[in-house]
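Quick look at the format.
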Amino acid sequence: MTINDGLYFATATISLICLVYRGYRRYRTTDARKVLTFIFLNLFLTGFFEVLKDWYISEGFSLASEVRTIETIIYFALHNLLSPCFAYYIVLINGAAKNKGRDYTVWFFTPMAIVQIVLAVTPATNFAYGYDEQGNYYRGPGMIVFYLVALFYFVYLVYSLHKTKNVLKSDYIKGYPIFLGTVVVGIIITLISADFQLEPVTEAVAAVGLMLTIDCNDGLIDIKTGWPNKAWLKMNVRLYDVYKYNYTFITVRFLNLNNYKDSMASSVRNNIVNKLSDLIENAAPDCEIYRYDESTFTVVVSEQLDEEKISEDIINSFGKAIHSDISDIDIRTVISIAKVPEDIESWESHERLIEYVPESANSQLTVLESHDLTFIKRENEIKEALHRAIVNQGFDVFYQPIWERSSGKIVACEALCRLYDSELGSVPPGEFIKIAEKNGMIVDLGYIVFEKVCRAISAHKLWNLGIKKVEINLSPFQLLARGLADRLEKILYKYSVPVNMINFEITETAPNDSRKDFTDVISKLT
């Protein structure tokens, strides 16, 4: 056995093991998984036929020359499909191929078709390769076409990964460049030395890397149902945002499913979950389905599909008892249907929709559509307004006087933060304060308000006007900010404001489990 025979045998063995492993895991079928399965099958056949050919020839069987010619055609026919398949797998994973029409498909696979045409004419012309009278293999001028096409797909693959690099930094797929780099090494070595066929085995190693990184990564898959999980959904939503895709996002949340967790055997409960999963799959064929958590599934419907029919089929699948091995089970279900980007855009807004349960969701089936979800769009708009106001110091502070009855004088005032946005107009504090707390903007907002108050106290010498205290609302989330006391102290010093002029009032949203942290910070402030 030659070194090349060993390399081809390794290629076939690695690929066969991966095919068996993937079959054993029984993951849900997706277009990306179909492509990766084809890559492994391609590599297995490539390695297997090469080893079989060399064995056949070495044994001196008849028609050895014809067998060699046929096997070489098979080799190149299979091998030249790998570069477009690797590239297509990547664009399926990172969202570049989503919602693409026929023109994109034709554009993507035309170079591959050119290679197959060159390959088809080669046996008669020796254009890409041939054998001399002694049976030695040689490369023809047409071989450059094979490598140029492979280079085209590799460049497009790298471009696609680069475009989404900010999303693909997670541990799940940051190894892609390394795995794909092994293919480049194999190609270069094979290009330099035609007698050392390292390329197929490096391609097999790269395919294994792709499989372990995302395709068979349990961190991205819900083991019980086989559907992609929350982590994969989050990644895809962010990828689709990069490409500005339009789609319909449907959430199916089972409100009382966890109530049966302790009262049913796990096998019975898993059977119910699988039935719920099957109902969604049957109602939404060709759609992306995710299991977000124990009680929630989500469906991504491409704009190329009939969204209205799919939504209707999902709705009609629920609102009735689910038959289990024991009895019929009533599952209270909330189905939300949102358009992207009309109703929701960012991952945060997707997450808000998924976890939203209306107070009216007491019936067996509650359906929320675009007109029911305007609050999510409003929250996003306010979030953007808060960001603009923080960048531009755009918050206004008004002072509400506090009158002392015994003296009949105004002795203090309360600082009130107000937000007027150029796009939204006046935004009530009851709206923007909660959103600022939820999105971590309340700390910066608080510093802006505090500095404006200190500047006003210093500029107008409020103590000379009989104002003894200025009350400022302090969010519990601000109290948890690192270095809060030191920064407030620096602002007081900057404007020469006496410490006793400030009176902090902690808002009512303080969580009970953080009282010790609050006490430590308050002791520093006082």
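Next, a different chain entirely:
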Amino acid sequence: MSLKFKEYDITPEQWVILRELSIKDNISQNELSFKVEKDKNTIKAIVDKLEKKEYLIRQEKPNDKRVFLLGLTDKAHILIEKLKYIDLEFNKDLSKNLDEKDLEIFKSLLIKLKENL
């Protein structure tokens, strides 16, 4: 997957952020950090790079000038439309030899592992 994203100069980590913001944008870095389960410093570095590439904008929160909300640019929306199909195909390829029961077991194990972190 990272090779296909490389064509668009996007890392898998940046894709996670873009994908999350495509679901719900205008959220704070803290909220984004919580949603994608990455520490605040990591999120800041990724957001800085995406902002430099003109995929994100930061806007002051109207009722709290200390907080900046992250929003997607039109350029980001165009990119997301392209990358979501790459992501979908990658996930299909990853699970192509697994039946539904295997996928359910796998998901259950991932949840248990996550709870142990």
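Residues 74-94 form the longest helix (21 residues).

See the schema section for token definitions.
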